[in-house]
Amino acid sequence: MSLKGVELQIAIPKTFDAGKLADQKQQRTQIMQDHANLQAEKQVEKDKETVLETEQYKEISPDDDAEREMEQQQQHKRVERNDEREEESKHPYKGSFVDFSG
């Protein structure tokens, strides 16, 4: 297949245009990747600086303090009652002395 002079006049400039277009396409792809990487880095930095989840703290109100005090008092009373019951259930002479001699 041989090319004539007229065909070469048209083919050679089109070859340069095609090369330019291919180069521009490759550069455009590279620029888009660089831009995407930059956006990803910005997002990572933003995520590092922002708080994603917060812990829920229960607010302490004066009522809560009063309830806690009442619970502690009731528990203290229960312990005292148990101590009193144990003292009442003791026998005057059984179980108070163990004789190991003999």
Q: What does this protein structure show overall?
A:
With 102 residues, this protein is mostly helical. The protein is 71% helix and 0% strand. The model has no long low-confidence stretch (mean pLDDT 80).
Structural features:
rod-shaped, 2 helices, mainly alpha, 71% helix, 102 residues
Task: Give a quick precis of the structure.
This protein has two helices and no strands. The protein has helices at 5-49, 62-88.
The count of DSSP E runs of length 2 or more, i.e. the number of strands, is 0
Largest sheet: none
Overall pLDDT: 80
Order of helices and strands: HH
Estimate the global geometry from the Cα principal axes. Answer: rod-shaped
Q: Helical residue percent?
A: over 70%
Fraction of residues in β-strands: under 5%
* Count of helical stretches: 2
Structure class: mainly alpha
Spatial extent as radius of gyration: 46 Å
Low-confidence stretches: none
Query: N- to C-terminal separation?
Result: 131 Å
